[in-house]
Structures are given as C-alpha cells and as structure tokens.
Amino acid sequence: MASEAEILDELRRLRARVPQLTGALAAGVDGLVLAQDTPGVEPERVAALTVTALGVAERMADATGQGDFRELLVRGVYGYVATYAAGRGAVLTVLAQDRVNLGRLLLEGRRAGARIGELVDAEAAAEAETEAEERSEATASAKPPPRTTTARPRTARAPRTTNARTTTES
Description:
Number of strands: 5
Shape: elongated
Oligomer: single chain
Order of helices and strands: HEEHEEEH
Structural class: alpha+beta
Strand content: 15-25%
C-alpha cells in the first residue's frame, strides 16, 4: 500500500485545516490500519469498526439506489465520526468535537479522502504492474526450450517402374 509517511502527512494536514478534529486514521478495506493520528483511541479497533460500518453503509446505499458509497456521518453526544471512501482500497475515518463546523468537516474530509485514495490506488496499481511483470518473466523462463529438429539422412530411392503399356495409334 501507499507509504505510511505520505498518508500520515495528509492526516496531519487535515487536522491542521480542521482544528476541532480529535483524530484521523486511514485503513484498508480489509481493516488494516495504513496510518493513524488518533491519540487516546485504539486505531486497530476503530479500523475494524470502520470496515464493519463501511459494509453496512455500502449495502444501505445500494439498497436505496443511491449509488456507490462516498461517506458516512455519525453524531454522538460528544462529537462526530465521519468515514469517507478513499479510492478503491481504503477508507478515511475522522473524529471531531461536537462544535466542529460540519460543512468544513465534510469538505476537508472529502478532499483528504480523495488524496489518500490517490496515494493508495497509485501504489496498488504499481504493485499490480510489478507482479504482472514478474509473472510474465517467470512464465517466459518456464517455457520449455524450443524444439530442435535434426535432419534425417536421405536414402536413395530406386526409380519407379510402371507396368503401364504405351501404345500409339496411327
């Protein structure tokens, strides 16, 4: 996946743009933490819950005809949890105080999710290309050597004899 340092930089920039954020993490759609800046919160637990919520949100969007999943917003007594699609292979989850400007949270979360998605998808594409090249090279080296044919010695044949009679009429 994308470099943890690059994703972490994006998470920190997001937290700088929205000061009321209390945490942010990026996770793969498999639930593994890619990068996190979540003081006081267990990132692995949040990532696992994010993937679970993602599955429900995707089914909800599909069942209601709303198209592909883009974002999920949960409001609690003390603040918000927002989850954004981050390309094909990741999700971004941010935690915010109750006094956050919700419009700013949604705007900046979408931007950060798009950027993280670009990083993750570009890395995944590069890995897939490398694997394809390795498979191609392995297949090429595993091919049997070309067949060499040896010329068979020719034997002299006896001339053909025919029993046909030739007649000429005049």
